[in-house]
Amino acid sequence: MDKTKIINGKMVSELIKVKITKQILKIKAKKQRVPALTIIQIGNNKASTTYIKNKKIACEKVGVTCNVLNYPDSIAESALIKIINDLNNNSNIDAILVQLPLPRHINSEKIINTITTKKDVDGFTPEILGNLMLGHYNLLPGTPKGIIALLKHYQIQLAGQHVVIIGRSNIVGKPLANLLINASATVTVCHSQTKNLSVFTKQADILISAVGKAKFVTAEMIKENAIVVDVGINRDENNNLCGDVDFNNVLSKVKMITPVPGGVGPITIAALLENILYLYQLNQETCFVLW
């Protein structure tokens, strides 16, 4: 494998975690309460349990308090709303994360909108997404924020580049498209209804896939020396972890690429940690400089 082609999300995330750890050590030295995150999990979705475990480990490593609240998938929507409102009013909780997906009888949008903006660590509430579109970046959704951080670290130019995103979710595709537009990239967003998808993907200077299908993007779909960012986390035919991109198939053709695992996943968690610290600063009315 040509390591010069690898966009190492794990390495970049560790650099961010070191800076966050230093800030929290300063907080501890002043005998102040450390940042606190509460994660709410409904049901026992295996993937969700793994994601939560990774977030909790990352929090504990840097010194963030992480409390996980587990509820059965039979919980009433009204009961969940009350739990979130109690957390909204708890001054010792800086950040709230409701792990998606939620059971069908619960309106995910309604639940997300119940989280106060000042504790919305995922950055999914309408106020935060609206500010993102306007270019106000106090807090950003984790995955788009992490992707921009990766591109910035590797000094990958965005202005004037044609970026093609596969996927239009509110979590990745839409906010990421706005961030890239604000960075002066030319952005095309493709989705399940896009006809002749490869016509668009072959034009991409930077291709970002967030479609959730194992090895969906092949070498025939990209142009020579494209930069590829793989957001997908899937299982292949042998039950091995893989992304949306057929990594081995495209590696010789790309200029740079994020691996799965070790690419977008770690940097998303690092971005989440940054958001927790930012929300803590709001709660404490203090200001620590991260960079």
TrEMBL record:
Pathway terms, separated by semicolons: One-carbon metabolism; tetrahydrofolate interconversion
Coiled-coil stretches noted in the UniProt entry, renumbered to this chain: none
InterPro entries given in the database record: Aminoacid_DH-like_N_sf (IPR046346), NAD(P)-bd_dom_sf (IPR036291), THF_DH/CycHdrlase (IPR000672), THF_DH/CycHdrlase_cat_dom (IPR020630), THF_DH/CycHdrlase_CS (IPR020867), THF_DH/CycHdrlase_NAD-bd_dom (IPR020631)
UniProt keyword list: Amino-acid biosynthesis, Histidine biosynthesis, Hydrolase, Methionine biosynthesis, Multifunctional enzyme, NADP, One-carbon metabolism, Oxidoreductase, Purine biosynthesis
Superkingdom: Bacteria
Residues holding NADP(+): G167, R168, S169, I233
Domain Tetrahydrofolate dehydrogenase/cyclohydrolase NAD(P)-binding residue range list: 141-281
Gene Ontology, cellular component aspect: cytosol
Reaction(s) catalysed (UniProt annotation): (6R)-5,10-methenyltetrahydrofolate + H2O = (6R)-10-formyltetrahydrofolate + H(+); (6R)-5,10-methylene-5,6,7,8-tetrahydrofolate + NADP(+) = (6R)-5,10-methenyltetrahydrofolate + NADPH
Domain Tetrahydrofolate dehydrogenase/cyclohydrolase catalytic: 7-122
UniProt GO BP: L-histidine biosynthetic process; methionine biosynthetic process; purine nucleotide biosynthetic process; tetrahydrofolate interconversion
The EC number(s) this enzyme carries: 1.5.1.5, 3.5.4.9
GO MF entry, a single one: methenyltetrahydrofolate cyclohydrolase activity
UniProt similarity note: Belongs to the tetrahydrofolate dehydrogenase/cyclohydrolase family.
PANTHER family given in the database record: C-1-TETRAHYDROFOLATE SYNTHASE, CYTOPLASMIC, C-1-TETRAHYDROFOLATE SYNTHASE, CYTOPLASMIC-RELATED
Subunit structure: Homodimer.
Role according to the record: Catalyzes the oxidation of 5,10-methylenetetrahydrofolate to 5,10-methenyltetrahydrofolate and then the hydrolysis of 5,10-methenyltetrahydrofolate to 10-formyltetrahydrofolate.
Protein name (database record): Bifunctional protein FolD
Organism of origin: Spiroplasma phoeniceum P40
